[in-house]
Amino acid sequence: MAAETLDGLTAVVTGASSGVGAAAARQMAAMGASVVVVGRAVTRTRAVADEVGGTALPADFARFSEVRELAQHLISRIPRIDILVNNAGIVSPKRQTTSDGHELTVQVNFLSPFLLTSLLWEKLLRAPSALVINTGSSLYRFGKLDPDDLDQNRSRYAQMRSYNASKLASVVHVAEINRRAPDTMTAVAFHPGTVRSGLDRNSALITAAKASLIGRQSCGPMLLALRLTAGTQYPLR
C-alpha cells in the first residue's frame, strides 16, 4: 500500500451516506480505491456511491440482521477487502432499545461494527495487507465499561455516558484485533475532531453547539491513519 495512493485496493466505508464517512469515501476514491459505500439512508448512500463511482450497500446498524446481510453481500460480491472503515455512529438523547434487545448507541457504535468485523475476518485475512479503521473519539477517556452490562441497564441513562463507553469499547476492539491478527492485518482508531456530521442528528443540543463552530466534514485524521500505516510494520502491536 503506497502512502499516497490506494490504487487497486477496495475500501468498505460504513456510515458513509453523509459526514465523515462520505468525506472519506470521496477522498479514498480520489486516491484510487474502489469504494463500497454503506449507509442507513438508501437515497443518500446511493448518491455518494454514484459520485465516487463505487457500490452502494444500504444497512441499518441498529439491526443485526441487516449487518449480517451486509456481510454476506460483501463476502459473495466483493473479491477482496483491503480496508474496512467502521464509521457508522449515533448519539441518542434518550434510551432506546433495538429490536435485538440492546441500547441503541452501544449497538450502532460498537456491537454492530464488532459483528461486521468478525463476519469479515476471513475475508480480511485474505488481503495482502488489510487495515481496519474505527472512528473513535477522544471522549473514550471518560468512558467506563462493564462487560456484564454493556447496555447500562443497571444505571440511569445518560447520552454521553453511553457514547463515551461505546467509543472506549471501540478502542478496546482495535487493541484486540491487533493482538489476535497476523502481521498482514492491523487496526487503528482515530479522533475526527469536532466536525459537522449526521452523528448527532437526534440531539438538538449537540447539533446547535457544533453549528456555532467552524467544524467541517473532515476525514483528515482517518487519512493520516492510512498514511502512517501504509507500507510499514503496523503500530499498536
Q: What does this entry look like structurally?
A:
By secondary structure, the protein is α/β, with parallel strands linked by helices. The protein has helices spanning 19-30, 42-52, 64-77, 104-119, 121-125, 159-180, 204-211, 220-229; strands at residues 10-13, 34-39, 55-58, 83-86, 130-135, 185-190. Strand 5 (130-135), helix 6 (159-180) and strand 6 form a beta-alpha-beta unit. The two termini are 19 Å apart. The model is unreliable at 228-237 (pLDDT under 50).
Radius of gyration from the CA trace? 17 Å
The total of beta strands comes to: 6
User: Mean pLDDT, nearest integer?
Assistant: 86
Largest sheet: 6 strands, parallel
SS-based structural class?
alpha/beta
Beginning-to-end CA distance, first to last residue: 19 Å
Q: What's the topology here?
A:
Layout (H helix, E strand, L loop, with lengths): L9 E4 L5 H12 L3 E6 L2 H11 L2 E4 L5 H14 L5 E4 L17 H16 L1 H5 L4 E6 L23 H22 L4 E6 L13 H8 L8 H10 L8
Parallel strand pairs: 1-2, 1-4, 2-3, 4-5, 5-6
